[in-house]
Amino acid sequence: MSVETPATVTDQLADEESPRGRGRRLKITIVTLVLLLVAALAAMGAVLGWGGPDKDSDSGASAPGATAQVQRTTLEERKSVDGKLGYGGGGSVVSGAEGVVTWLPKGGKVIDPGGKLYEVDGKPVSLLRGDKPAFRTLAVGDKGEDVRQFEQALSELGYGGFTVDNEYTELTAYAVKRWQKQVGLPQSGEVDPANVWFASGSVRVSGKDVKVGERTSPSAPVMSTTSGDRGVDVPLKVEDRELVSKGDQVDVELPGGGKATGTVTSVGSVAKEEQSDDGNPDGGGGDTVIDVVIKLDDVPKGQFFDQAPVKVALVSDSVEDVLAVPVGALTALPGGGYGVSVVDKNGGVKDVEVETGMFADGQVEISGDGIKEGTEVVVPE
């Protein structure tokens, strides 16, 4: 091992301070700067994507994102028409006796057969199921269709022991006494027409013509009623008659954006001029319409409107057993027309030209080479 003497170190320092030494240090410095610059450019390229693979070179190399499968389904085009939400079957209840009204139900209350409609002099008037009004006192020995109607109604309430027929027997009278005890009437075994009111089903109190404490008399109005079923009335234009038939299922858009389904219960056969909101004809120039009634299958909670405008969706056209995808899966091809991006089993993506058919409910009917049920297509987000 050699030991540098002070003289040797001095010679090296002198050599570095010489022009040749300064040149060597300058070369080292330049090389260092170049290497730093190359490193910086490489880092910038990584950030900006310089030098990466061409994004269009292999679309199957990256994940396709959101996808959907081609489905075999039925598509339906719908036409929206105006309707009015309410209660059907309007009617009026009239008094059958002279006396003071001692009880009335609240407005909007739905009363089922067997329930109490109102009271006069403390005696209840019961709602019974039937199509004909009571017109005479029924007692043992009476015969007729009104006897059969009453016995049928009494049987539906759970009272038995008699035969439902046209004859009022002792067995009928015995069942009547049990019913009278239950509702709070004198147990006479006879049926006073002032104590019963017949209707085809449940009724809803839509208005009252008297107040508790006021006197009433036979045939005086007591209250107005509707059926207990929510429904929609549609004044349908005559030219749209072919869009609806009795028994059709329809969708109804309720106030506030709620949805309900309904069944068409009747389609009018008499054309008339559309009426204004006050119930009078528009005075000329209005549409010719027919009345369509829809019974709602179910009404979402919170829909308490007695009357309100609604929209009813009627099927105007449909296609069955077709292949369909979300409309968002369609892409416009450079040469015109439409295509979809099909995802293969390896995750690659290939654009396939397709023919489009019906557009409905956010879906579109398609057909094309390789398009079949279950084919996976890209749906851009």
Description:
- This is Peptidoglycan-binding protein.
- InterPro entries: Peptidoglycan-bd-like (IPR002477), PGBD-like_sf (IPR036365), PGBDSf (IPR036366).
- Keywords: Membrane, Transmembrane, Transmembrane helix.
- One of its GO terms (molecular function) is efflux transmembrane transporter activity.
- With 381 residues, this protein is of the alpha+beta class.
- The chain folds into four domains: 43 residues; 77 residues, conserved putative lor/sdh protein from methanococcus maripaludis s2 fold (Beta Barrel); 99 residues, Elongation Factor Tu (Ef-tu), domain 3, CATH 2.40.30.170; 136 residues, PGBD-like superfamily/PGBD (Muramoyl-pentapeptide Carboxypeptidase, domain 1).
- It contains four helices and 22 strands.
- It starts with 5 loop residues before the first helix and ends with a strand.
- The N terminus is likely disordered.
What series of H and E elements makes up the topology?
HHEEEEEEEHHEEEEEEEEEEEEEEE
Strand content: 35-45%
CATH class of the largest domain: Mainly Alpha
Given as residue ranges, the uncertain stretches (5+ residues, pLDDT < 50) are: 1-36, 38-61
User: What is the CA-atom radius of gyration, in angstroms?
Assistant: 43 Å
Q: How far apart, in Å, are the first and last alpha carbons? A: 75 Å
Based on secondary structure, the structural category is: alpha+beta
Number of helices: 4
Helical fraction equals 10-25%
Looking at the structure, the CATH topology of the largest domain is Muramoyl-pentapeptide Carboxypeptidase, domain 1
Please count the beta strands (DSSP E, at least 2 residues each). Answer: 22
CATH H level, superfamily name of the largest domain: PGBD-like superfamily/PGBD
Please indicate the count of domains. Answer: 4
Main sheet specs:
6 strands, antiparallel, barrel
Shape: elongated
Widest beta sheet: strand line-up = 2-12-16-14-13-17
Protein name: Peptidoglycan-binding protein
InterPro entries: Peptidoglycan-bd-like, PGBD-like_sf, PGBDSf
GO cellular component, one term: efflux pump complex
GO molecular function, one term: efflux transmembrane transporter activity
